[in-house]
Task: inverse folding
């Protein structure tokens, strides 16, 4: 695995052109509202991340051992921007009513059940919140994880940390080891993805859209990062009040 990782880092990291093509095509796509256009762009750019990973896997003849129900990495810190958290919420908001109610009920139960762990997380610094060892000691699952089935309630829009962390060996190592050496991170794709998302948002703003029509506060929502549980907790509190 070490040799494959070295090969990927030396010669298989993409140049970002696939994201450029995706953005060009997004300009030609229309949705009923600007907020829906942004959500569509977010989903499409996440798909491009998947496509880039699939290309590298084909070139290296790798196949991930990650499977539905294997949720060890869902107890790692998922640190993202408020922008991405708002787009995940926007995705949930357009789900069929039954699915939306299921997610809402799940989140309410989550924040009740893990109140003490969330309090500890709020007291940590950013560096501590991003530290896998400290975070895993909280035994705090991702808010979008259905712990009964081991499935993600927002799988289609799972963010970059979830999407780019893969295991290519025995999946049991993720449960047995705190920081398994057999896993591989495609985090380098996150830079291309975020650049493309920024480019598309800026184009929408130049076309006359604003924060209100997009449902975000730009660029403020993209400048800081927090653990996903805290971002969703803030959203839930604001929705109540």
Result:
């Amino acid at each position: 695995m070490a040799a494959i990782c070295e090969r990927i880092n030396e010669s298989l990291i993409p140049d970002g052109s696939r994201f450029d093509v995706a953005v060009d095509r997004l300009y030609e796509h229309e949705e009923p509202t600007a907020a829906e256009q942004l959500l569509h762009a977010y989903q499409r750019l996440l798909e491009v991340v998947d496509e880039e990973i699939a290309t590298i896997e084909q070139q290296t003849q790798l196949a991930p051992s990650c499977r539905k129900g294997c949720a060890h990495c869902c107890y790692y810190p998922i640190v993202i921007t408020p922008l991405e958290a708002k787009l995940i919420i926007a995705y949930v908001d357009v789900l069929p009513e039954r699915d939306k109610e299921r997610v809402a009920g799940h989140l309410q139960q989550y924040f009740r059940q893990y109140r003490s762990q969330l309090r500890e997380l709020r007291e940590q610094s950013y560096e501590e919140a991003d530290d896998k060892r400290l975070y895993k000691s909280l035994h705090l699952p991702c808010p979008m994880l259905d712990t009964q089935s081991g499935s993600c309630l927002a799988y289609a829009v799972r963010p970059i940390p979830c999407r780019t962390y893969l295991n290519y060996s025995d999946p049991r190592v993720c449960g047995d080891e705190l920081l398994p050496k057999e896993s591989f991170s495609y985090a380098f794709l996150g830079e291309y993805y975020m650049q493309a998302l920024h480019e598309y948002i800026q184009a929408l703003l130049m076309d006359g859209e604003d924060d209100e029509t997009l449902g975000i506060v730009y660029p403020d929502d993209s400048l800081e990062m927090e653990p996903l549980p805290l971002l969703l907790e803030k959203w839930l509190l604001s929705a109540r009040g």
